[in-house]
Specification:
Number of domains: 2
CATH architecture of the largest domain: 3-Layer(aba) Sandwich
CATH class of the largest domain: Alpha Beta
Largest sheet: 7 strands, mixed
Structural class: alpha/beta
Order of helices and strands: HEEEHHHEHEHEHEHEEEHHHEEEHEEEH
Number of strands: 16
Distance between the termini: 53 Å
Strand order of the largest sheet: 4-10-9-8-7-5-6
CATH topology of the largest domain: Aspartate Aminotransferase, domain 2
Number of helices: 13
Radius of gyration: 22 Å
Helix content: 25-40%
Length: about 450
């Protein structure tokens, strides 16, 4: 084993780890965060940064919540972890499963726990295929997702993710994953018939995709209520009701990927409630613990549960992870939900999100701002090279991201859009600081 030099710098130590979604040429030394409080990050070199991305869309209740640290410590002192495989469980996972019963949607009463969003969506795919095999329809294996969608980073969820840069160096993708057009009101990529709205056009494209593939081969559609990594795409209000009707018409399960959207992020506790639609399977993660410990899961309808419970032992749902129902993570999840409810953070998200979007809309005086959109505290500013052609300006977005960071505000460039997803506890003054900083950056560039 090679010797490591004595007293290496923090950056030298960090070079021993691989960073996600990163190339070493993108920065000489990473930003090393030493502590955090509220919406603020404090670095080892003395900087204070407003985290307008809440970590990775997930620190919903903000940083430095001692209640969550105390919940973890208390549980660890009693029972940090035990297997939740057949014949064993723990109190926090049982209590959290009960708490989540019908919490998101009335028809979803049963939860399986994972460690994060990729595992949750992978589990959803397997569960959809399992369900149709139990119905005697073993050919229903295809998963449809939307273009510009992001569903995770395992091989299966990468195959459902339709953003090409995640595919290039990891192909070939898994078979039986199919894409349909995203309901993007500002730049819909499909065909629109005469007098047809974007929501109806995107729903029609889904129906045509199902018919082209053969309904007897399609297991499920997976959809983010608001597409996050793909550019914070907010669908028209008429889209999801049409999608639900199409899925019912052709016996296709609807998987709601609320990994980013859930637990108050969009101004509702769960986003599809806005559209009066219930999924067959819900995938969740991130906000369930506000990122304090890794936890995710799926919730399933009674119809799917019955297919599992009525199976023979030989046809059991043989699926699970080492950390499914992790006792400490579930204890933190329970306390996190209590904070979300007590502080009414979904309502706070709606109020502060409206203020943030109004402020960002004021930046339309800059010629590069092509669109401002969002729901709750999940917002985006789209930057364009030309407002007529709507050609996205990915280089400018990256420049603005880096310049904002230098001024103490952390945002995320997503191709040609700037994404904003601050903790739900953010104050009016802090929202205004985000807007003022982006405005100052755009002003300095123009």
């Amino acid at each position: 084993m090679a010797a490591v030099g004595e007293n290496p710098s923090l950056w030298e130590q960090d070079k021993r780890q691989l960073h996600p979604l990163h190339h070493p040429s993108q920065s000489d030394n990473p930003t090393i965060v030493e502590r955090a409080d509220g919406v603020w990050l404090y670095t080892t070199d003395g900087r204070k940064i407003l985290d307008a991305m809440a970590g990775l869309w997930n620190v919903n209740v903000g940083y430095g919540r001692s209640e969550l640290a105390q919940a973890a410590q208390a549980q660890m002192e009693k029972l940090a972890y035990t297997s939740n495989f057949a014949g064993m469980t723990n109190l926090p996972s049982s209590e959290l499963a009960y708490k989540l019963s019908a919490y998101a949607y009335p028809s979803l009463k049963t939860t399986f726990f994972t460690s994060g969003g990729s595992e949750s969506n992978d589990t959803a795919f397997k569960t959809a295929r399992y369900f149709w095999k139990r119905q005697g329809q073993a050919d229903k294996v295809k998963i449809i997702s939307r273009r510009d969608s992001y569903h995770g980073i395992t091989l299966a969820t990468t195959s459902a993710t339709s953003i090409p840069r995640y595919h290039k160096m990891f192909g070939p993708l898994m078979p039986n994953f199919v894409y349909t057009h995203a309901p993007n009101p500002s730049r819909y990529a499909g065909t629109i018939q005469e007098n047809e709205a974007v929501g109806a056009a995107a729903a029609r494209d889904l129906e045509e995709t199902i018919l082209r593939e053969g309904p007897q081969t399609v297991a499920a559609l997976i959809a983010e209520p608001v597409q996050g990594v793909g550019g914070v795409i907010v669908p028209p209000d008429d889209y999801f009701p049409q999608v639900r009707a199409i899925c019912d018409r052709y016996d296709v399960l609807l998987i709601a990927d609320e990994v980013i959207c859930g637990f108050g992020r969009t101004g509702e506790m769960f986003a599809l409630n806005r559209y009066g639609v219930e999924p067959d399977i819900l995938s969740f993660a991130k906000g369930v613990t506000s990122g304090y410990l890794p936890l995710g899961g799926i919730q399933i309808s009674d119809r799917i549960l019955e297919a599992m419970n009525s199976a023979s032992v030989e046809d059991a749902w043989l699926h699970g992870y080492t950390y499914s129902g992790h006792a400490t993570a579930c204890a933190v999840g329970l306390r996190n939900l209590a904070i979300l409810e007590k502080e009414k953070l979904a309502e706070q998200s709606a109020r502060m999100g409206a203020r943030l979007r109004a402020g960002l809309a004021g930046l339309s005086e800059f010629s590069a701002v092509g669109d401002v959109r969002g729901l709750g505290l999940l917002c985006a500013v789209e930057l364009v090279k030309d407002r007529e052609t709507k050609e996205p300006d990915a280089a400018l977005a990256l420049t603005v991201q880096n310049a904002a960071a230098a001024r103490g505000v952390r945002i995320r460039a997503l191709e040609g859009s700037l994404a904003f997803s601050p903790p739900l506890i953010i104050s009016e003054d802090e929202v205004d600081q985000i807007v003022e900083t982006i405005g100052a950056v755009l002003d300095s560039i123009e």
